[in-house]
Every structure is written in C-alpha cells, then in structure tokens.
Amino acid sequence: MHFSFVVTTGNEATLDVLDVAEYLIDDEGTGVILMFVEGVKSAARLLPIAAKATRAGKPIVVAKVGQSEAAADAVASHTASLAGSSQAYEAVFRHTGIIRGIDSDQMTDIAGAFVYFRDRLPMGHRVGILTPSGGAGAWFADLCEAHGLHVRCWTA
C-alpha cells in the first residue's frame, strides 16, 4: 500500500482537515482517506463532504481524539475547534458512513482492506457468517448488528 499524500494542517489557521478531504476526494490517485482529527470547525461542512466521498467510492477513516476533558481543552487551545462529545461524532460518523479508527494500526489495516478489495466489496447491509465456531459466529453477529448490518440466519 502506498500513500498519495501525507498532509498536516497544523493549527488550521489557513486550511483545515475538511479542505484537505475535499481535495483528496477529487484526486484520482487517492482511494481511501485517512484522517487524524482533533475536531472540525463546521459540522455542516462535514456532512456534504462525507456524502461526496461516498459517491466517489472513497471511504473516509477517522481517528478522533479529544474525548476526555483534558484532551478537549488541549484541542480547543491548539486549533480553536470544538472537540465535541464522542457520542455526537459517533452519530455523525454512522450517519455519513465515516469509519472510526481506533489507532494508526487499525486505520492502515482498514485502508489496506479497502485497497485490496476495491472492486470486490459487497454492496448493501446484508452479510452471512461462515465459521466452524458457534461462539465466534455469535460474536461476529453481535458486532455486525451493532454496526448496522443485517446478518443472514443459515439453516443446517
């Protein structure tokens, strides 16, 4: 996997993460957008940008920091953006299809999967689970349904 761009927006005095995301959506060399986000200055801008990325077939994976009170204070002093509640960001991510990454390892794993399976990703929200372990199958079913997927029940 290679990176077409690695960009830092610093204190976002001129450009912010949403400006960069808009650019990357239009860039033909970019297939997946990974973002490390302290906060966004305009939630109203995030929604159409996420929709544009979806239409372009470019997943956005975000690691959102600033969830604790101390981290939120640091974010506000650094970028003048609102860290916002974790629940609010999670709701926006679910609504827009943005994938939340926990750390850089997970984000690159997710990006790698999208790059590798680019033309072979299933469409829709229906999934089937095939496993030799009943416990693992139940666990995967819980995870799938928690993320809005409909799990197909198989009969023996």
Helices and strands in order:
Layout: H1 17-26, E1 33-37, H2 43-56, E2 60-64, H3 69-79, H4 86-96, E3 99-100, H5 104-116, E4 126-127, H6 134-146, E5 150-151
Parallel strand pairs: 1-2, 2-3, 4-5
Largest sheet entry: 3 strands, parallel
Looking at the structure, the CATH topology of the largest domain is Rossmann fold
β-sheet strand percentage: 5-15%
Number of structural domains? 2
Element string (H = helix, E = strand): HEHEHHEHEHE
Helix content: 40-55%
CATH superfamily placement of the largest domain: Succinyl-CoA synthetase domains
By DSSP (H or I, 4+ residues per run), the number of helices equals 6
Structural category is mainly alpha
Describe this structure as you would to a colleague.
By secondary structure, the protein is mainly alpha-helical. The chain has 2 domains: about 1-120, Rossmann fold, CATH 3.40.50; about 120-155. The chain is built from 6 helices and 5 strands; from the N terminus they run H-E-H-E-H-H-E-H-E-H-E. The strands form 2 sheets. The chain has a 3-stranded parallel sheet with strand order 1-2-3, with helices on both faces. It is globular. It starts with 16 loop residues before the first helix and ends in a 5-residue tail after the last strand. The mean pLDDT is about 85.
